[in-house]
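Running co-folding for coenzyme A.
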Amino acid sequence: MTWEGAGRQKQLQMIWPERLLDRPPRPELPEGYELRCYEDTDESQYLQLMARAGFDNWDHDRLERERPSILSDGFFLVVHRATGKAVATAMAQHSPSELHPCGGVLGWVAGDPEHKGKRLGLAVCAAVVSRLVQAGYRRIYLQTDDGRLPAIKSYLKLGFEPFLFCEGMAERWQKVCETLGWPRSPDAGQ
Ligand SMILES: CC(C)(COP(=O)(O)OP(=O)(O)OC[C@H]1O[C@@H](n2cnc3c(N)ncnc32)[C@H](O)[C@@H]1OP(=O)(O)O)[C@@H](O)C(=O)NCCC(=O)NCCS
């Protein structure tokens, strides 16, 4: 989920604080939904879900490009029991980078707008963080954009903290937190 080309601003980043590594979050779902791992037969409904969440350039090849980095048992779906439909998703990925040399990433969080307001995003994110912790990652991070408020609210509620890795980040986070009415937390890093 990175684009840092000319004229485009860097994405926001958040990290899971080390002090919470021994307290991974537990996914909680409302009645009528269940959490399970993605299976190959889910591809078509997964791509439909991604499109409904606004990621409309996802197709088979796009998914295949992500596959090598996804941890085993680290690709989650929330399913609506009554319809059998996949309504939320996220993945745990091995994603080392210059800023996060041994990093694991919470990637591709998406939810069906028809099922919004039930904190299903929070549940899949909790499952991913828990899987990354279980796999031994000590640096767990994510990338997002300033306008993705439901996602950012979910990340903050879960325990992620803003990662101030370059100039301008503190100001951008200030604005996001003000918009969400979220008290500015201690900075995770500079
Ligand atoms: C991220 C996503 C999965 C969350 O879906 P969800 O779990 O159904 O989210 P909810 O509707 O329960 O909202 C989560 C929180 O954000 C809050 N929220 C929702 N819209 C908001 C807005 N416009 N402004 C401020 N807060 C908002 C909700 O009130 C809720 O807070 P609460 O738990 O304190 O009540 C979904 O919004 C999505 O697919 N977005 C598009 C894709 C995306 O942005 N992915 C993340 C990429 S980094």
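Result summary
Confidence is low (pLDDT under 50) at residues 1-6.
The first helix runs from residue 43 to 52.
Job closed.
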